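Researcher: Last one for today. Full complex below.
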Amino acid sequence: MIKEILKNLLTKKSAIPFPEDFKGNNEMLEIISSKKKIETGFKRSIKIRQVDSGSCNACEWECTALSNPIYDIQRFGIDFTASPRHADILLVTGPVSRQMELALRKTYLAMPEPKLVVACGDCAIDGGIYKGSYAVTNGAANVIPVDCCIKGCPPSPSDIIQALKKLLDALADNKAQIK
Amino acid sequence: MDKILAKAKRTKEYLNEYYIEIKKNDFKEVCSYLSHDKNAILRMMFGTDEREIDGTFKIYSVFTIYGNERFFIIYFSLTEEDNAFPSITHDIPAAHWYEREIKDMLGLIPDGHPDTRSLVFHDAFPKDSYPLRKDWNISDADLEEWGKGIAKKRPYNFMEVKGEGIYEIPVGPVHAGIIEPGHFRFSAVGETIFFLESRLFYTHKGTEKHFEKLGFTEGVKLAERISGTSSYSYSCAYCMAVERMTGAEITEKAKAVRTLLIELERLYNHIGDIGNMCAGTGLQVGYAKGAAIKESLMQLNERLTGSRYLRGVNIIGGVNKDILLCKDDIFSTLSMAIKKYKELMKLLLGTVSHVERLENTGRLSKEIAQKLGVTGVAARASGIEDDLRKTHPHLLYERLAFEEHVMSKGDVLARMMIRAEEAECSISIISSLLENKYKGDPAVQPNNIPGYSSALGFAETPHGSLFFWIKADKNGRPLRVKFRSPSFCNWPAVPFAVHGNIVPDFPLCNKSFNLSYSGCDM
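Model: Here's the assembly. Have a good evening.
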């Protein structure tokens, strides 16, 4: 029994490895603005409330994949929460359809300060392929103030982790006071 | 069939599409004859604005008869003044949502429809505003109002169940987990769901209208982004419709690549879904194992195509990558995946608490499934043999020998077992595809699109049958792109499946159907 446990502790090799390009690229993350709230800091632990504002569901599956045994985002102190009342970050996916605009705004207002908004995926940034359709508002920034963007259609889980980790580091070091 | 042809004003045959024009007043009788005497399935129903051609609107309905590879496309004209047509919902319940959609998007009135509420548009969308009409315009002020939900121009009344001890539970559109938006209203007695009404279309992005703006080549990208997890099936069906319009035939090699990738898509979806159902019963180990296998398959997708969702491979005229060259990678990943998948199934079926939750939960009877035109895994679990790969062999399916899996019980367990069997079937299809060599280039140069041509495209997605119907205008640009996702006809069946179950089992039922909101909401 003890031997078994020791063996498990010593072998760190997982059957399904991280994708090779896990290092990601620095262009993935774009911090747009940051307000005074950074001074309080998030102390390296954040809770995310995800809102699908009309995406095609690919971004959601990538967010779901963050909690699988390969990416296991909890080990970075990041977790998804069910209620906006418990959340530090609002992660928006989708081009914000007009029928979801009100729900998104209400979710944002329900979150306590300090709060950050991350637009995840090309659709959430500027409408993506749906830009110009009558039923979308062309991105989350047209509905609520967005602090940070993660590019990609959809951004892969490693991109999302990379971006969130960077945002977290920046917050902890108080370096995020761009603009 | 002679009975219908006697009533026909005009008929046209194109590939396996049989267009029959009838008079408006014969519509009800013809549909009733097809559906009851011929046992035909209503595949889709939609309206088009063809006023630039002959000054009329047209209503098309597509039927298939079991054992017949033809699509019977019945259509008739309506004018702007005389814009009502006889509703067939009482006779064929499957037409329920299609007719409401035609009314919302084109302003053509289904006469005698039991439900006059708006389906697609929510409260503040202006009344008498029909996006699919060519002369439609909306003011910015109206759009703003719509988004903020200020003016209640289309008030929506939920159905109410009254009685002692009945209470309502509203859920959504923002849910507790990471899922798509939709509103559900349960009328419950104690813990038991007495009645469920779902209000969807929160993710309505005006996709069909947007296709008209983008043009055919760009349209492939949009087709890939209609429903994320079946991106590849959507682009296949879309490309197929456009290719059929031009009269081009793709090469054997392109067909082989498409068949391979569409099966890979089915595989990762089915295994992921089986894992997800464990989240519904709280079996975390099953959920984690399923997610890990799914992840390894998605990483394979990324290595093969550069996209985890198999995007960017299909082009009109074929594919832009010869995936068959990566044989070894596919073999080694699949052999590992199948080993792990077998372990997972052994674990799931050996866990009594898991199986007991699935058994007899969320039962959908064959009768209701047939009436509502349910498709895909849900239909096959309820005993309906409906698989486009068998009934309308396309791509290379004609050459491949595989079984159609059907079960009769229609509960959550049956839907899980269908997925399990189909996943194994997909693996064997992929291996047999890789054993052969195929002729031709990956892609051919597509011909120009003839003016006013139209064609159907279809594919069997992991969730069920998918149809595209595309018509070009005189310059060869899209005049109308209509798609019918499998979710569109499966959603109305969910309230029937959960009736009599307890509220905590709803997520489990919902996961067993695993329907796409974005695909349904157009």
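Chain A is about 30% helix and 15% strand. The first strand of chain A starts at residue 29 and ends at 31.
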